[in-house]
């Protein structure tokens, strides 16, 4: 039987407090550090925790509704639901680049929610 862990708090209001989520969405784990990255869509940020679920840091540069996240080659890829972007960050939260526009053509998105980079 798999253990279930619940942590953090929910807020119906915008919050910048660590561990408080407006709408937790996508998450990923860095296999090197075991850091847990969680998209906090309503608060336009990604919160980062260690394997004991202790808050480490957050980042929000160029965020507008982060909804999905994955890690590949030491880079974080984050979909931005409200701005229709795929944004790339370093694992310490530094903004690197973005691609995308609203639409249905190549490199265009319409409220992206999922993400898988092989």
What summary fits the major beta sheet? Answer: 4 strands, antiparallel
Catalogue the unreliable spans.
none
Strand adjacency order, main sheet:
3-4-5-6
State the shape: globular
Structure class: mainly beta
Strand content: 35-45%
Cα gyration radius (Å) = 14 Å
Helix content: under 10%
Question: Termini distance?
Answer: 29 Å
Mean pLDDT: 91
Number of distinct helices:
0
Total number of β-strand segments? 12
What is the element string, with H for helices and E for strands? EEEEEEEEEEEE
Brief overview, please?
This protein has 118 residues and is an all-beta fold.
Description:
The protein is mostly beta strands. Helix content is 0%, strand content 45%. It is built from no helices and 12 strands. It has strands at residues 9-10, 20-21, 24-29, 36-40, 45-49, 55-59, 66-72, 75-80, 85-90, 95-99, 101-102, 108-109. The strands form 4 sheets. A 4-stranded antiparallel sheet has the order 3-4-5-6, with no helix packed on it. A hairpin with a 2-residue loop joins strand 7 (66-72) and strand 8.
């Amino acid at each position: 039987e798999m253990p279930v862990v619940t942590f953090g708090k929910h807020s119906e209001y915008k919050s910048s407090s660590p561990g408080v989520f407006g709408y937790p969405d996508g998450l990923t784990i860095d296999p090197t550090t075991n850091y847990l990255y969680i998209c906090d869509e309503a608060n336009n940020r990604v919160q980062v925790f260690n394997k004991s679920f202790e808050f480490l840091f957050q980042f929000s540069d160029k965020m507008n509704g982060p909804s999905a996240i994955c890690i590949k080659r030491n880079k974080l890829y984050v979909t931005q639901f409200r701005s229709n972007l795929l944004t790339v960050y370093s694992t310490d939260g530094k903004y690197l680049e973005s691609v995308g526009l609203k639409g249905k053509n190549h490199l265009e998105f319409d409220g992206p929610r999922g993400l898988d980079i092989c």
